[in-house]
Amino acid sequence: MAVLDIKGVTKKFGTVTAVDSFDLTVADGELVCLLGPSGSGKSTLLRMVGGFETPTSGEIKIDGEDVTRVPPERRPTGMVFQSHALWTHMNVFKNLAFGLKLRRLPADEIKRRVDAVLELVGLGGYGTRMTNQLSGGQQQRVALARSLVLEPKILLLDEPFASLDQHLRERLREEVRDIQQRLKITTLFVTHGQDEALALADRIVVMRDGKTEQADRPDTVYREPATPFVAGFIGTMNLVDGTVANGTFSHAGFTVPLAVADGPATLAVRPEALGMTRAEGQGVAKIHRVTDYGTHAIVDVELPDGFRLKAMVNEARDWSSGQAIDLQPRAFAAYRDNAAIFRGGQNG
Q1: What mean pLDDT is reported for the chain?
Q2: Are the C-beta atoms of residues 172 and 157 closer than 8 Å to each other?
Q3: Whole-structure pTM over 0.90, yes or no?
Q4: Is pLDDT above 70 for 347?
Q5: CA torsion sign, 276 to 280 to 286 to 289?
Q6: DSSP H stretches of helix in 75-161
C-alpha cells in the first residue's frame, strides 16, 4: 500500500507564492496528473513531494509517515525528469545499478533487479550500451528504469516526454501507463499536455496560480469543466461572452435559449457539439476557413462582429469559405462569476 497525502502545502519564493494551501490525496495504485499552464505550480509541487524543494508550510505524508523535511535520498519516491539526467560516463547498467550500490545490495541482487527492470521497459540486452548511444526515447526508458529499479512507493514524473516527437511521445505514454498498471505503483505525473493527461490519468488535477481549479476523472473534467478556465484549458472549447435576457443568451446575433437569470454569461460549446446548417438568407455567421483532417474537418466560423468559433464536421467537402450558415449548439454550458450556472442542450 502506498498513499500520498498532501495537506495545506504552500511554497513561497520571496514574495511569489508558487503553491498556495494545496491539498491532494493520491490513492494506492492511482495515477494522478497535475495539469496546468507554465507557472501554475505543478512542477514545484512535484519537487516538494520528491524532496527537492521544502514547503514553506503544510505537510506531505506517504503511508501516514511525515516526509515533509526528509531529504530526497531517504524518501520512498522515484523521480523521472524531463531532461533524463543520465550519467553519460556510465553505461546503462551502471546508471541503473548506482542507487542500488548505495544501498549496499549484493552484486547478484543488483544484477537481477537491473536485468528485470530493463526487460520491463523494453531494453533487455542494452545494459552495456553507453547512454549517449541511445535515442531520446531509449534514454527516457532508462530514466524510468532507474527510478523503478529502486522499487519506490511513489513514482514522480515531471513532463518526461516533453522533448520527444509526437509519435514517440504517444507510444511511450502508453507503455508507461501499461507499466504503471502492471506494477500498481502510485504515480504523480506533471504535464501541460491535455491529451497526455486525458490518455494517462485516473484523475486530473487542473492547477492555476498554485491552486486546484478542478480535480476529477478525465471524462468529467472534459465534459463538465467546473470553471471557464478549465473549460478553455481542457480540449478545444468555444468560449463566448454575452448577455442573458428573458431566457435567451446572445452575442452579435448568435442566440441560444438559456433558462437562467438575466445578466452577463459565458457560453461554452465544444466544436463537436456546435451544429451548423446552411442559411436560407444572410445567416447568423459565415464560414471563414475549412481545415480537412481526413477523419473529420474543423470549420472556423465568423460572427458579424468578427468573433470566431470552431465547429467539427464529418465531411469537409460539404462546406466552403464564405458560406452563410446558422448555428445550433447541441450541448453547452454557461458560466457566471467563475462557476457553472447551466449544463445541458437545446434538446435537454
Answers
A1: 92
A2: no
A3: no
A4: no
A5: positive
A6: 92-102, 107-120, 136-148
